[in-house]
C-alpha cells in the first residue's frame, strides 16, 4: 500500500468515504489472503468450487464443500441474491450452509436428495454470478459512497466491497500491480487509461471515438466514474507470443527441429517461421542482433495477458527452463541453457517488442543477498542435535523449490513431511491441517506486527515532513531509526484525523489480541483444506481447478513461509529436546483452541 489517496469531491462526506475505500482496497490488494480480514474469496469462486467438487469429486467432496460453505459470510450471500435473476433460487446456498454448520452427515443428506437437480440450480447461480457479480457489487458500492451517511455507517460494507473487489481482480488473473493500475484508471483523465463503456470503444472512426471519449471524461458523473471498474473488466486479455532462446545446442547438418513440450513450441534457426522473424526484425537496429548467435534453438511460448508483459517475465522463463530441463534430460546432458538475457514479444509476427535482463555474466552478491543466502535451515540450526533438526534439513530443498517456482504440490508435500505421524482412531495419520494451523498460532502476533507496521511505514514514508508531525515523537524516532519491530501501530495512529490511518492501529490491536486467534486458526485451516484438495486433484485426477490454483499461488507460499520460520524458532527454543515429532506434537496440543 504505497500511498494515501487524496481524491477530492465537493461533498466532504463523499470525499472521506471514497478516500477510505481506495486506501482500504490498496491495503487488501497488498495483503490478500494473509489475514482473516483480507480473505481471498468472492461468491462466484465459492459457487464455482462447489460445482467443481460435485462434478469431479463425487465420492470425497464433503470436507471441501463444508469448508467452502463456511467461508461464505452474510454479505457474500446477500451479494449472491442481488446478483441473481431470481433471489428465491439462491436459498439453496443458505440451506446448504445451515446443514454444513450442523454436521457433514446433514450436509450429505441434503445434497443427496435430488442431487442432480441441486447441481443444475447451482450452475444457474454460477452463470448469473459470472454475468452480474461485479456490476452488482459496484452498483452497491456507488450507492454507499454517494449517499448522505457518514463513513462509520457503511465502513464494514466498504471493507467487504474492497476485499471482494481485490479478490475478483486476482481470480481474473490480474497481478497485484495490474489490479492496482486497473482500479486507479477510473480516476484517470487520460483517453488511453480510463476504461470506457464498450459502446464508446466500438466507435469505428478514431477521430469520432476520441471526441466522444473526451466528452465522456469531461462530463462523467460520480456513478460513471466508478462504473469504470465494471468496464475495466470488459477489456479482453490478448494473446502474446514470446520468442526466447535455448543456447549451447549444436545441430548437425540437415537436422530440423520442430516439437511441442509443456505448451511451448521449439524450432531450429532455419525454420521458416524463424526466417520470417529474422526478416521483420532486420529492419530494427535495436532488434536485429537477437538472432545473431550460433548453436541455439528458438522457443515460442504463448500467453494471454491483460497488461504489461514484464509482469509475466518470470512465468515465461520458468516455462523456458522446463523445456531446457526436458531437452537436457532426454539427451542426457546438462549443456543446454535458457537464455534469460532478452526476449521478443509479438501479437501477429508483423511487429515485435523486446525485453532485456542484465547481460552481466556473473551473479552479483551484495550484503543483502548474502543475508538471504543464510536464510536456510542448515545455517539456522547448525548447533542443534541431528535428530531434532533432521526433518527440517531433509525437507529444506522441497520448501525452496516450492517457494521459488510457486510449486503448490511441493509446498503441500513440505507441510506434510514436516507434520508428525500420530496415532488416531483411524490408525497412524499426519493431521496436516490441524498441525500447521496450530503451529502458525505461535507466529500470530509476529504476522500482525509485520503487516500493519509495513502499512504504517508506507503511509509515513509518503507524507510530508509537516504531516509526519501528527504522529508521536517516540514513534517518529523509531521509524527514522528503522526500529520497526518496536512500533505500536495503535499508539502511532490513534490521534490521526485520517480514518484509514486510524484504522491501521485499530485493526492491528484487534487482530493481535488473543481473542482473534480463533479467526486466524479458521482462516489458515480454510487455506490448508483447499491446498489439500488441490494436491489431491493433481495427484489423483490429473486435473486442477484453475481459480483454486490462482488463489493458492497467492496464499500458500506466505502461509508455508511463516510455518517454516515458526518450526525453526521452536526447534531453536527447545534445543535440548531430542525428538522433532514429539516437540511439534506437544506444541500443537498447547495451541488447541
Regions with little confidence, pLDDT below 50 for 5+ residues: none
Structural class: alpha+beta
Question: Percent range for helical residues?
Answer: 55-70%
Number of strands: 8
Kindly report how far apart the N and C termini lie.
Answer: 33 Å
- Strand % is 5-15%
Strand order of the largest sheet: 2-3-4-1-5-6
Q: How large is the count of helical segments?
A: 27
Largest sheet: 6 strands, antiparallel
Write down the Rg. 27 Å
Brief synopsis:
This protein has 593 residues and is α+β, with helices and mostly antiparallel strands. It contains 27 helices and 8 strands.
Describe this structure in words.
- It is a single chain.
- The protein has 593 residues and is α+β, with helices and mostly antiparallel strands.
- Helix content is 60%, strand content 8%.
- It is built from 27 helices and 8 strands.
- The protein has helices spanning 12-31, 43-56, 62-70, 74-83, 91-102, 104-112, 115-146, 151-171, 176-184, 198-201, 206-219, 222-232, 272-281, 313-331, 367-373, 377-380, 386-404, 408-417, 432-440, 444-461, 465-468, 473-480, 489-493, 499-512, 517-541, 546-573, 580-590, and strands spanning 238-247, 258-261, 264-267, 296-305, 337-346, 353-356, 421-424, 427-430.
- The strands form 2 sheets. The chain has a 6-stranded antiparallel β-sheet with strand order 2-3-4-1-5-6. A two-stranded antiparallel sheet has the order 7-8.
- A hairpin with a 2-residue loop joins strand 2 and strand 3 (264-267).
- Helix 7 (115-146) packs across helix 8.
- The longest helix is centred in the first third of the chain and has 32 residues, at 115-146.
- The radius of gyration is 27 Å and the shape is globular.
